[in-house]
TrEMBL record:
Keywords: NAD, Oxidoreductase, Tricarboxylic acid cycle
Catalytic residues of the enzyme: 200 (proton acceptor)
InterPro entries: L-lactate/malate_DH (IPR001557), Lactate/malate_DH_C (IPR022383), Lactate/malate_DH_N (IPR001236), Lactate_DH/Glyco_Ohase_4_C (IPR015955), Malate_DH_AS (IPR001252), Malate_DH_type1 (IPR010097), NAD(P)-bd_dom_sf (IPR036291)
Domain Lactate/malate dehydrogenase N-terminal: 26-168
Gene Ontology biological-process annotations: malate metabolic process; tricarboxylic acid cycle
Name of this chain's protein: Malate dehydrogenase
Any Pfam family hit: Ldh_1_C
Length: 340
């Protein structure tokens, strides 16, 4: 059994974007800072008291974003870097957030982005491995199920892979699950923390409503449960459709990215019981060929402190997990094969 009390205390604070502990100096880089996610994410990170310095990089537009964000009245330093300044942007950074790459258009799956984003992520990871080999890397670029193995394999080739320091950001699924459950139950999102496990696309997203006080009675309730699970798994499609060709989730993703970055920074600062789902190198389903998996992870001074098992599942959730694992395995293998 995982430490439920730790989960509660960590997730209980999750309705606030940032919580603080005694700050140390933390330099954070955003690679892809000029994009739809990168810009609001940079703004939110500027307001995080645990960030002392922000390094904003993109192949276009980052110096302008940096000049703009740098006027916000918080103490952190902000610098922007142009296309040919990636190494300078990474100099001395402890945390690197990667939202670089193309987003979906209507009708596309996240896997359809593979051809373009795989090489972008590989090249950025390679630069991090060379210039900032001890940095923690937060991967937002899709398909996360493949881009995280790409980062891991790229770093492995350089002898710089530490599984405690590479994270796929699945926080938007957690944020959506909380919001959507609150709408169904007429409560507040703060009362609706939902562990979401598996991966970050469609059927690989597995919400564990049976482990929540307000959601457990819905499990097996037929239509309401089925619709809620579908909305959590395919919530991203609602945004892609509404934006009608202009991209996918950017603002809610920036919020989720900033929230996860803050959780990691709190862990790095020594705060206890920081527990949140994230997609990491994981032993949980390794015997089935799935060696990256999102489950509740305790974050600490070295990054991943402890990977919690998934805990008891309802029969409906066992079925969701059965559908998740083979697809996730394929996505992971595709990422590894790209680097090999
Ligand atoms: P966008 O197109 O608005 O921005 C992407 C930025 O990346 C652009 O500014 C572009 O110049 C930059 N870029 C491209 N190649 C680069 C390189 N080699 N180095 C540095 N920067 C580079 O796209 P958006 O909407 O910001 O999405 C970014 C990624 O995030 C997409 O892959 C999208 O699918 C993913 N995403 C992930 C989510 C998650 O939950 N993990 C949720 C939503 C989107």
């Amino acid at each position: 059994m995982f430490a439920r009390s730790a989960l509660r205390s960590s997730l209980a604070s999750s309705s606030r974007l940032f919580s603080t502990s005694t700050p140390r100096q933390t330099k954070v880089a955003v690679l892809g800072a000029g994009g739809g996610i990168g810009q609001p994410l940079s703004l939110l990170l500027k307001t995080d008291p645990l960030v002392s310095s922000l390094s904003l990089y993109d192949i276009r537009g980052a110096p302008g974003v940096a000049a703009d964000v740098s006027h916000v009245d918080t103490p952190s330093e902000v610098k922007g870097y142009a296309a040919d300044q990636l190494d300078q942007a990474l100099d001395g950074v402890q945390v690197v957030v990667i939202p670089a790459g193309v987003p979906r258009k209507p009708g596309m799956t996240r896997d359809d982005l593979f051809n373009t984003n795989a090489s972008i992520v590989r090249d950025l990871a390679s630069a991090v491995g060379r210039v900032a080999p001890t940095a923690h890397i937060l991967v937002i670029s899709n398909p996360v199920n493949s881009t995280v193995p790409i980062v891991a394999s790229t770093l492995s080739k350089l002898g710089a892979f530490d599984p405690n320091r590479v994270f796929g950001v699945t926080t938007l699924d957690v944020v959506r699950a909380s919001r959507f459950l609150s709408l169904v139950t007429g409560s507040t999102p703060a009362e609706c923390d939902v562990p979401v496990i598996g991966g970050h696309s469609g059927a690989t997203i597995v919400p564990l409503l049976s482990q929540t006080n307000l959601g457990k009675s819905l499990v097996g309730s037929g239509e309401t449960y089925g619709q809620l699970v579908h909305r959590i798994q395919f919530g991203g499609d609602e945004v892609v459709k509404a934006k009608d060709g202009a991209g996918s989730a950017t603002l809610s993703m920036a919020y989720a990215g900033a929230k996860f970055a803050n959780a990691l920074l709190r862990g790095l600062n020594g705060e206890k019981d920081v527990v949140t789902p994230t997609f990491v190198k994981s032993p949980l389903y390794e015997s089935q060929g799935v060696d990256f998996f999102s489950s509740l992870v305790e974050l600490g001074p070295k990054g991943v402190e402890k990977i919690h098992p998934v805990g008891p599942l309802a029969p409906e959730e066992e079925k969701l997990l059965e559908a998740c694992l083979p697809e996730l395995k394929k996505n992971i293998e595709k990422g590894k094969a790209f680097v090999a």
